[in-house]
Amino acid sequence: AQNRLLIKNGKVVNEDNIFDADVYIEDGIIKQLGRNLIIPGGTRTIDARGKFVMPGGIDPHTHFELELMGATSVDDFYQGTKAAVAGGTTTIIDFVIPKGEESLLEAYERYRITADEKVCCDYTLHVGVTSWNNRTREEMATLVQQHGINSFKFFMAYRDLFMLRDPELIEAFKVCKSLGAVAMIHAENGDIIYENTKKLLAAGVTGPEGHEMSRPEEVEAEAVNRACVIANQLNSPLYVTAVSSKSAADVVSGKRADGALIYGEVLAASLGIDGSAQYEQDVLRARSLVTSPPLRPDPTTPTYLIEQIVQDGLQVTGSDNCTFNSDQKALGKHDFSKIPNGVNGVEDRMSIVWHKGVYNGIMDPTRFVAVTSTNAAKIFNLYPRKGVIAVGSDADIVVWDPSSNRVISAETHHQACDFNIFEGMEVYGVPEYVVVGGRVCVDECDLKAVHGFGKFIECPAYPSYVYEVVEEREKRPRGVARSEAEARKYAEEEAVFDK
Ligand code: DUC
Ligand code: ZN
Ligand code: ZN
Fold this sequence. Notes:
Blueprint: E1 4-14, E2 17-26, E3 29-34, E4 44-47, E5 52-55, E6 57-62, E7 67-68, E8 71-72, H1 77-86, E9 89-96, H2 104-116, E10 122-128, H3 136-147, E11 151-155, H4 166-179, E12 182-186, H5 190-202, H6 209-214, H7 217-233, E13 238-243, H8 246-257, E14 262-267, H9 268-272, H10 283-288, H11 301-310, E15 316-318, H12 326-329, H13 349-359, H14 365-379, E16 397-407, E17 426-436, E18 439-443, E19 446-447, H15 464-474, H16 484-498
Parallel strand pairs: 1-4, 1-5, 6-9, 9-10, 10-11, 11-12, 12-13, 13-14, 14-15
Antiparallel strand pairs: 1-2, 2-3, 5-16, 7-8, 16-17, 17-18, 18-19
Helix pairs in contact: 3-4, 7-8, 8-11
The structure holds dihydropyrimidine-2,4(1H,3H)-dione and zinc ion (2 copies).
Dihydropyrimidine-2,4(1H,3H)-dione (DUC) binds at residues 63, 68, 186, 291-292, 320, 322, 341-342.
């Protein structure tokens, strides 16, 4: 066999366990796991003593080379996946966003042609359903049944561009459920944003501070709540993307505590920094932070959100990486509503979560693995191929050095963007080796990513971690009792209906 690799003496971390083991890899697959393995001669050995050996990160939310608001995001599928690998992420999930009159299938094909030859790591796609027409249902079915797509994103914001209205969302969620796909939502109230933007501009508020002002926390929280209610009433699973505020996180965690089948993805940027600089003097810095949903000025946000991630109020971390250079951000210098939306994060997400969580002593390494890799793998049906160190799984592995640190900077990052929103932040936790499909692509912190080495991964429908719960609930239309008190409550409700 070619391409043999042994990672010795490390602490293997999965979402449910930490154990001392060596990991033996052949032809891109984990072949043996344990102590005293019998290894063919001539196998390259990496010594991971004192290091954590973890499943490579899965970033379920990127927008590489996306045309948005008159600009194209500068990290393309090459540079974006290269930066991902540099940071310890070995799988990304991007969003097919149709252009103009393009059909969903045409857009999907365009993304495949663009990405397949460029990606440095494995990737897959969600499909953004940016309008609802008489072809949509059939196209969604074709994507699921013939193209390995099992997730669709719908927008409650971007009025006149992507936004769907509630009756369309209801249809959309029903179609997802019937196909065994995961419905994903960009949750902000687009009508309110439209109204506030007009008002602010008319009042002369044109600077970057207008962005967050036009869409404060409750505008996000309202949409999250509405989406959750629609999903619950249909007994449809729902994945909320890029939660950026305490209020929205509270809605997701509250709905989950009530037994709803909701998954919350936190915006990695909002774990690293708050958004107060959008209201300060440095307009370049202010514009650089503009993303949707916005980074919040409340300085307690990052800590609050990391706690939600620790306590399972939220389950997944995503970067929403959508990088625009300073000159592109300047398209909005006279009008905040024209600043292309998006921030970096694909490279730094793992370090930010480690530093804010594990290094700060509030998160176990197992939870780190769950929220940076395993949970996304399960929700999008990549598990156990991805998201776990186990025999038979893909050899996508990060050897993590918890005692090294680095200072994040645009001078040293691998992204195409000319600034980094985390500039100057010192983070503990560094990927010393990153193995992508059995190949060492970060070698003693030295990046050796390979153009086109990654593959498109098909995601089968009906992810069992999601749909087993749906099926269970179909049997109990008014909710699943998780305690005796709840069971009594449901029995009383039942009795009312019986009268
Ligand atoms: N939000 C962003 O900030 N950029 C891309 C798309 C999105 O929803
Ligand atoms: Zn979005
Ligand atoms: Zn996004």
